[in-house]
Amino acid sequence: MIAPALLFALLMQTAPVQWAVSAPAAGSAAKAGGKLAVTVTATIAPGWHLYSLKKMEGGPIATTIVMPEGQPFRLAGAIDASAPLSKFDDTFQMDVESYEGGAEFVLPLAVAKDAKPGAAPLAVHVRYQVCDDKQCLPPRTVKLELQLAIR
Amino acid sequence: MRVLITALLCAASLLAQETSDAKAYQAAYRLKEPAAKVAALDRFLAEYPASNRAGTARRELISAALAVNPKDAVRRTNAINKTLPPADAADLNRFLAAELNGAKQLPKDAERAARLAVEQYTWEAFAAQAKGESPSRSRYEGQRARMNETLGQALLVRGKRAEAKPVFLEALKGNPSFAAAALAVGDVLLKEGKGPEALAYYAQGMLARATPESRRKFSEAYLKVKGSEAGQQEFLDERYKAVFPSPIHTGKYRTTGQRSARVVLAEVYTGAGCGPCLAADLSFDAVLERYSRSDVAVVMYHEHIPRPDPMSNTDTVARWKWQEGRGVPTYAIDGNATTGGGTRDMAVDLETKIRQTVDKQLTAEPFAAMKLAASNDGRVVRASVSVTDVAKDSADLVLNVLLLEKELRYSGENGIRFHPMVVRSIATFPLKGEKAKSETHEFHLAAVAAGLEKHIADFEKHDERHNKDGKFRFMEYKSALDAADLAVVAFVQDVKTKAVLQSVYAEAKP
Fold this sequence. Notes:
The complex is a heterodimer of chains A (151) and B (510). In chain A, strands 1, 3, 6, 7 and 10 form a 5-stranded antiparallel β-sheet that branches. Chain A has a 4-stranded mixed β-sheet with strand order 2-13-11-5, with no helix packed on it. A 4-stranded antiparallel β-sheet of chain A has the order 8-9-4-12, with no helix packed on it. Chain A has 1 helix and 13 strands, in the order H-E-E-E-E-E-E-E-E-E-E-E-E-E. In chain A, strand 8 and strand 9 form a beta hairpin. Helix content of chain A is 7%, strand content 49%. Chain A has one helix at 4-14, and strands spanning 17-22, 29-30, 35-44, 49-51, 64-66, 73-75, 80-81, 85-89, 94-99, 102-111, 118-128, 130-131, 140-150. In chain B, strand 3 and strand 4 (336-339) form a beta hairpin. Chain B contains 18 helices and 11 strands. By secondary structure, chain B is an alpha+beta fold. Chain B is elongated. At the A-B interface, helix 1 and strand 8 of A face helix 1, helix 2, helix 4 and helix 9 of B.
């Protein structure tokens, strides 16, 4: 049996960013027509840079977080992101905003007024791309899900 | 499943272990009201002066203070700087000046702060900041160039054009790839009525880091100065060679007594929008210089990583998938793959490593014999390959035949202009356990070019990774094939182990 810590290290090897989405209380219920916030967290392997939400012309690919359509939740305001580090990037020859170690993105959500009570899976898609000093990985999209309830 | 959940909990607990300074900083950063943010960041800096977020916090504090009262932001910068070592003080002064320049506020204070930054950012100050690590001269020059560029911008805001020019030139001396400084010199010279000189700097800025804006500036200046677009590319070629010479200087390879009959295959996965690919691209330019094509065949697969690359095509994208590569640049010498490049400065060390691998591989016996003849009538490149003496028993061997364009000119985001041995099409034939095989493949150039164009056009309509909304546009299409500049590479490879048995290169001259 592989130890969890080892598995986690292996996960970080293959994908230097691990993503998760959480609500203040797991399984917490939201009211139809109400509001709630969920948090998307990124755990970033040492040496890697995850780029901020800010688009940088000619620079690395910014992280984007979108809510796919067809669910009773929608983004209801600006994403509250962790403070990125702003550094001059030698490879891109420009100031670049990035995260090292980890990042949090708080998503303010609105619940549809006509949402039916019961279990409601929340879907969040994160498109991101990472580089370290020697390589850039292909952009990826992760599809996160969280089980919520509507009362 | 349980183990996976535990592993994810490990990730969460790592986040939970976030240090108290990080938490305090996040809390202060998240405040929306500028005055409250200033107060919170003040408290953070007082409580955690040695935090590794202190530098970012100071900049964030000044940014918030500027929103409240610019004069107060200047006062605060001066007060904070009294407590900082010179390199950190220079950094904060530069930041203040850049913010004031951007907002066109307090121009005198911006100039003063920028001048102080340049004065404070000495080699000694930079070296002291290195904290035990060996300080890098080129990194220092690069950072100092930023200080000068900000000072130049401050002088421009104050209308001191004549003073700004030498400051921008000083920045370019430290870092010729500093596109913003080059474009600023171009602007100054154009306003002075020195069009031809301005053009040279616009070219430098565009070549250093091509963006739609830098391309537009150069093209407009070129048309104004030259009266037409004729000769634009040649002008850029000359400027590129003059300003961005390769840092790698190796002699020609000399055959040793141990040289085998192997032709080494170097496959490079790269991207014109990939910063760290710079070192690998320059290294393989040097490989092409050092070795003859009867020693080493180099093929470059362009990929849309991390940014879209107009030299990518359906075959190179499929090849990357087959390679199961992790990131770009990745290079495979006779099938043995390594990932990693770096900045221009890192190219010399990388080339040394690659040269050692190639030299060793040149003494390894091949596991097949190959002959290749390529004809080209301007419409069709016909590649006739014969493989004999296959010395591996494997049902997984294939013959790959690649059509290459020997040189493409394209200035992308990473500053490389000349792209050698660009793979345009790939044909694959299974050997099915045969010990010898002859194959003739025709590359119909119009069809290949149409396929290249379709790939790029389709990408502009939609790409799952880069262009979900269909709004992305390439700066340039590179779909046209120059029939007079083609070559063919063929190699036998085990698709399971990825080992390359033998390779061969031939020109496809019309």
